[in-house]
């Protein structure tokens, strides 16, 4: 996510490879805060343009941290309350910062999580030593960090600094999680100082809620820091009340955080595929005139994939230098790793790919293993997609010439049919994309895919 050279399609592939992250990203992009950006976001490509790379990166890191520790909490009973504290702190941080924007909110959540990371590491991986640290802190009146240093030979601060170094965290986050006292008499002159204060206050609020102090009773502390942090008093109070309710829910229902995983296998063509295609057309048409062809291509491809429920899809475009059709972007299981192996020569050969291109007509294959079809599948395709049952080829036409095609399949799940209405809407998606190419390069020859698509 912090690779500035990564293009849109690569970033989308990263998000789509994790089902939970995909759902979280799309849900955030569809939140009320982003209604002004068009609303009804159904693709990661569109969500990326709405939210920005940084917000998605912070969201991914936060999900990964919570997944790891929530899994361990199930086997370590004593660690449950410690994770509750961190979850409640993160929830409070998100609520008081969400009005500042997605990047700031998710950044604040990650800083709050990481500020407590060193303590969580000790609790989860050194449970016996943690018991000793707690006893030492209680009997000797020592701070937890000092007790940790006496028992383990390293303070929580030192452990946290080492983690940020090894994980190569962005400097802003690494600096913002360093422990500093809250001092409202000192202006918050930098964004890092603001993040640090939010993380510290959120952790303090969670600590007091776990000590069974009522949310109303910590109102004085919240009021004291509200203006300093640039947060409304009422938002502070409401966030504390919501966080207290969240803590009660955690204690009653147990820890429940999303379980990350790979892409979900296709369940076949959705029953509402035609309606989905219509929504995809609306979404693409809304941004087509203001989106460069390079950025519009992955959006169209992903929209098509979402509408038809594909397990895999990719786009192939003619490389005029090599006179080969080459796959340049794609989504789904193993597709990014396969792209370099997906290509074929421009010269005609009687297979389904050349047939779709020469006739400039979509081809739907219901059963790729059937005898009439298998002899028309190129060797490179059989090698990479031997178990695929049903797929579609959608040619892309510019100035009466096919310059590429989109491919989509449902994996091993068969698809019995594709309607004329669905094909019509697919053609319209392709037409919108080709119109974008036309605007980008008004004079012949047609643009080569390699000259910027997905940039």
- Beta-strand percent range: 5-15%
Radius of gyration: 26 Å
Count structural domains. 2
- Count of alpha/pi helices: 21
Descriptive overview:
By secondary structure, the chain is an alpha+beta fold. It has two domains: 52-253, Hypothetical protein af1432, CATH 1.10.3210.10; 273-440, Beta-Lactamase, CATH 3.30.450.40. Helix content is 56%, strand content 9%. The protein is built from 21 helices and six strands. A six-stranded antiparallel beta sheet has the order 3-2-1-6-5-4, with helices on both faces. Strand 1 (312-319) and strand 2 (324-332) form a beta hairpin. The longest helix has 21 residues, at 53-73. The two termini are 15 Å apart.
Short description:
This protein has helices spanning 8-16, 19-29, 44-51, 53-73, 80-97, 102-115, 117-125, 127-140, 144-152, 156-166, 171-176, 191-210, 219-229, 233-253, 273-288, 293-308, 335-338, 352-359, 371-374, 379-384, 420-440; strands at residues 312-319, 324-332, 343-345, 363-365, 391-398, 401-409.
Keywords:
Beta-Lactamase; Hypothetical protein af1432; six-stranded antiparallel beta sheet; 21 helices; 455 residues
Chain-wise SSE layout:
Blueprint (H helix, E strand, L loop, with lengths): L7 H9 L2 H11 L14 H8 L1 H21 L6 H18 L4 H14 L1 H9 L1 H14 L3 H9 L3 H11 L4 H6 L14 H20 L8 H11 L3 H21 L19 H16 L4 H16 L3 E8 L4 E9 L2 H4 L4 E3 L6 H8 L3 E3 L5 H4 L4 H6 L6 E8 L2 E9 L10 H21 L15
Antiparallel strand pairs: 1-2, 1-6, 2-3, 4-5, 5-6
Helix pairs in contact: 2-3, 4-6, 5-6, 5-12, 5-14, 6-12, 8-9, 12-14, 15-16, 15-21, 16-21
Protein name: HDOD domain-containing protein
InterPro entries: GAF-like_dom_sf (IPR029016), HDOD (IPR013976), RNase_Y/CdgJ (IPR052340)
């Amino acid at each position: 996510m912090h690779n500035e050279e990564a293009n849109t399609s690569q970033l989308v592939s990263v998000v789509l490879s994790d089902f939970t992250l995909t759902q979280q990203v799309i849900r955030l992009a569809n939140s009320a805060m982003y209604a002004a950006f068009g609303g009804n976001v159904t693709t990661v490509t569109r969500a990326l343009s709405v939210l920005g790379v940084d917000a998605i990166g912070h969201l991914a890191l936060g999900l990964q941290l919570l997944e790891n520790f929530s899994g361990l909490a199930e086997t370590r009973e004593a660690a449950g309350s410690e994770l509750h504290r961190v979850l409640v702190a993160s929830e409070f941080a998100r609520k008081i910062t969400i009005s500042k924007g997605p990047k700031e909110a998710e950044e604040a959540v990650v800083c709050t999580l990481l500020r407590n990371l060193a303590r969580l590491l000790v609790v989860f991986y050194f449970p016996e030593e943690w018991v000793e640290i707690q006893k030492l802190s209680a009997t000797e009146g020592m701070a937890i960090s000092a007790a940790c240093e006496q028992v383990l030979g390293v303070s929580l601060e030192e452990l946290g600094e080492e983690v940020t170094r090894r994980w190569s965290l962005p400097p802003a986050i690494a600096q913002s999680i360093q422990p500093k006292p809250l001092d409202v008499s000192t202006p918050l002159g930098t964004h890092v100082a603001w993040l640090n204060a939010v993380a510290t206050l959120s952790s303090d609020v969670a600590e007091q809620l776990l000590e069974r102090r009522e949310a109303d009773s910590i109102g004085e502390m919240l009021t004291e820091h509200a203006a300093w942090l640039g947060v409304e008093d009422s938002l502070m109070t409401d966030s504390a009340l919501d966080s207290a309710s969240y803590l009660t829910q955690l204690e009653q229902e147990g820890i429940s955080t999303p379980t990350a995983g790979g892409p979900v296998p296709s369940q076949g063509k959705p029953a509402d595929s035609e309606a989905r295609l219509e929504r995809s057309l609306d979404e693409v048409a809304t941004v087509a005139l203001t989106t460069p062809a390079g950025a519009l291509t992955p959006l169209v491809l992903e929209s098509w994939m979402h509408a038809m429920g594909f397990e895999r899809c990719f786009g192939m475009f003619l490389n005029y230098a090599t006179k080969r059709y080459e796959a340049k972007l794609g989504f789904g299981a193993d597709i990014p790793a396969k792209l370099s192996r997906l290509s074929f020569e421009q010269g005609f050969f009687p297979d389904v790919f050349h047939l779709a291109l020469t006739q400039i007509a979509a081809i739907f294959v219901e059963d790729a293993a059937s005898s009439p079809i298998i002899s028309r599948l190129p060797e490179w395709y059989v090698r990479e997609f031997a178990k695929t049952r049903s797929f579609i080829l959608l040619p892309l036409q510019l100035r009466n010439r096919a310059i590429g095609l989109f491919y989509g399949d449902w994996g091993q799940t068969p698809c019995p049919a594709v309607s004329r209405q669905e094909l019509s809407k697919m053609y319209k998606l392709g037409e919108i994309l080709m119109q974008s190419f036309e605007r980008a390069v008004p004079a012949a020859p047609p643009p080569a895919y390699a000259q910027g698509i997905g940039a």
